[in-house]
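Quick one: HEAT repeat-containing protein from Chryseobacterium ureilyticum, structure tokens please.
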Amino acid sequence: MSQFPEILSDENAKEKHPDFRNALFSLESKDVSPENVDSLIKIYTTTKQIDYRNKILKLLYDQNDPKLHSFFELAFKKERYLDMKVYALRELTQFSDKKSIEKLISKFKITLAKREQTTPYNYQEYELLKGKNAFPFLIEKYNYACLKDILQQVNEQYERMPAAFKGHFTIDEAGNFVHLRTPVESSKMIRAFFDENKIYRKFLPIKNRIEINPMRHRQSVFIKCKSPSHCLFGSIYRFLYLHRNDRYGK
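--- reply ---
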């Protein structure tokens, strides 16, 4: 008997309905059969919800189906977030030759280098790229020099960040979020950094210093930075939005 939720293949279902969301985020890769793939692709290509797309990429990136190649080519081009590009790359490496992967990585390296300038404190994205389901997974499986080079670049850019942004969490083999510090500890470290450098309170309005609305600001990481704090908080909003289901165990 199929474990795939009927609501996800129902053309009349509302994607913002809680039942739809719960069905998608309760789904595991083992529950996805070849006949379910089209339903997930349809959701991916029509939704504006970043976390839906992120979840679907992780549901499909280990599917051994050549038919998915064109889908992941589209995803690699479409996604602006580098970790989501890597999820697409996981499938592309299954059915692409080494030279094709080298070309993709060459473009990826340029974008990654720009991140250091536009979002200098974007530690979340670095941790996602360093996660055990991202570049380390690809290196272990394929051992391409280009993959080792890009992970080295990730690590070098990560190390150039202030200590306040390092070691807060990691990602396991299944793509799950693992805290290395409590959220309170992480918040204190980051707040202390901004207070010391006098950029935190200078940038954020009083009403936004405590409450963060990830839904409203999830795209702000791509707005041209007005200050280092602007870059950081854009990435925080996006990260909280993507991982809100992980944080609440849904």
